[in-house]
Design goal:
Strand content: under 5%
Shape: elongated
Number of domains: 2
Number of strands: 0
Number of helices: 8
Distance between the termini: 63 Å
Helix content: 55-70%
Largest sheet: none
Radius of gyration: 18 Å
């Protein structure tokens, strides 16, 4: 396929994916983005109304795609959750990716100290060791 044909296809996908998302066809939008290997189009087109369904679909597809593609799906879901400040869901995906840098980044990005405590409990429950340099004084007040 020529470069002009690829560009025309991507322009068309940039119109179809938001249209599908706005008309409750999240699965079709995700499938098209996965088929074209341009999950960035999907990530940019997701809005608050349908980000939960998009991430749920991407997460359910992880078991059915080969190894490098499943990491891309999880990474896209992680970015969407972070975009809409869904910190517990983002942390769950980061733990699934087994990436301690993402885990620490999610905890440090969360502005709510109570939510940060909950994230710390989730991390502790999974027995994940992270280096979190910016210790919060509120975390030191947790009873032992």
């Amino acid at each position: 396929m020529s470069d002009e044909g690829k560009e025309a296809l991507l322009r068309l996908a940039r119109e179809i994916i938001p249209y599908n998302l706005d008309h409750n066809a999240e699965a079709e939008a995700c499938d098209l983005a996965m088929e074209l290997e341009h999950l960035d189009i999907l990530q940019d087109a997701v809005h608050n109304e349908h980000h939960q369904r998009v991430c749920a679909y991407l997460n359910s597809c992880v078991a059915y795609v080969p190894d490098p593609e499943n990491v891309k799906l999880l990474r896209t879901a992680l970015n969407v959750y972070r975009k809409f400040e869904q910190w517990p869901q983002a942390l769950r995906i980061a733990l699934q990716l087994n990436n301690t840098d993402d885990v620490a980044g999610i905890v440090s990005s969360c502005p709510d100290p109570v939510m940060r405590k909950q994230l710390a409990f989730m991390i502790g429950r999974q027995q994940v060791r992270i280096r979190y340099l910016k210790l919060c004084s509120s975390l030191l007040l947790i009873p032992r």
